[in-house]
Design brief:
Layout: H1 6-28, H2 31-35, H3 39-49, H4 55-62, H5 64-67, H6 86-95, H7 112-121
Helix pairs in contact: 6-7
Length: 123
């Protein structure tokens, strides 16, 4: 008795198409959440986030992956206790460092001085 090997594949295909169809129906009820905030909500949320700048939190989010825990060195150079001039550090944060992995724009321009002060306070 020969069994057709295509039948299991067709069943899996049909179940997959059915699953996709029913999951898309489930998503219709949640399309606003899936799409994210509209422009008004985004503007309101952005205004709410423009409070106090937390240099330590920004460093934990954006700097430790390259500069290591406590900015003590890793893929990037150690920043704590180093004698980098404040102006050089400001320029590196603002413009990035050409030829390295240090990108520009990690910190908003209006908060770069606060970030430099935080880094210089690390020892």
């Amino acid at each position: 008795m020969n069994k057709n090997p295509v039948v299991p594949y067709l069943l899996i295909f049909a179940l997959g198409i059915g699953l996709i169809f029913f999951m898309s129906l489930y998503g219709l009820d949640q399309k606003k959440e899936i799409a994210g905030p509209d422009e008004e909500e985004a503007a309101t949320e952005e205004n709410a986030n423009t409070g106090e700048f937390d240099a330590e939190a920004v460093a934990q989010q954006k700097c430790v992956s390259c500069h290591g825990d406590n900015l003590s060195g890793g893929m990037g150079p150690a920043l704590n206790g180093q004698a980098f001039p404040a102006g050089e550090m400001h320029d590196a944060i603002k413009d990035g460092v050409p030829g390295t992995a240090m990108p520009a724009g990690l910190v908003p321009d209006e908060n770069i001085d606060e970030m430099v002060e935080y880094i210089l306070s690390l020892d």
